[in-house]
Q: What sequence folds into this?
């Protein structure tokens, strides 16, 4: 069986607001398997929003591990991300997981990958998944030339651009925000 994968997740910090959005498409090979998948989760009583891309089962495994790390490190998101990335890279089981996470709280925005990377992205914009470069390009232009928009509006427009171009991204968006 071909693994379920492909998506677009984008997060933007702008004017004391954080917004993360994702499309709803999951594919099975080159076929749309489901069009309304929820790829965002709130953790730590809503203080942290996460988005995931990649294999669904792998993503949920990583979200559970990340939540455990958050509990272990008293909600310190960066420390939890670094510890998850270390485990992910060194553990034989975790090393096989194919997923990426975007995590955000009111102060920080991070991308966590299976290669051991914890990236604090430039310009307070993070994007992962198949349509990530389209969404990131749009978000960068919006932050530079349409600063009057809210973070939520920028996320919505960035996802729209990605969905218009990327065949693995649809227009069924879910957006969460922290203000």
A:
């Amino acid at each position: 069986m071909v693994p379920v994968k492909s998506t677009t997740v984008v997060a933007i910090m702008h004017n004391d607001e954080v917004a993360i959005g994702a499309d709803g498409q999951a594919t099975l090979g080159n076929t749309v398997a489901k069009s309304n998948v929820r790829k965002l989760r709130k953790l730590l009583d809503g203080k942290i929003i996460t988005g995931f891309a990649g294999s669904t089962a792998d993503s949920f495994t990583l979200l559970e591990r990340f939540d455990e790390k958050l509990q272990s490190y008293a909600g310190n998101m960066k420390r939890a991300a670094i510890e998850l990335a270390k485990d992910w890279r060194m553990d034989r089981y975790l090393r096989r997981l194919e997923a990426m996470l975007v995590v955000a709280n009111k102060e920080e925005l991070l991308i966590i990958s299976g290669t051991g990377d914890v990236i604090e992205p430039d310009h307070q914009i993070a994007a992962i998944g198949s349509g990530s470069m389209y969404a990131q390009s749009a978000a960068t232009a919006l932050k530079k030339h349409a600063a009057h928009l809210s973070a939520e509006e920028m996320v919505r427009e960035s996802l729209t651009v990605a969905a218009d171009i990327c065949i693995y991204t649809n227009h069924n968006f879910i957006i969460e925000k922290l203000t």
In short: The chain has a mean pLDDT of 91. Helices lie at 56-72, 77-90, 132-145, 151-165.
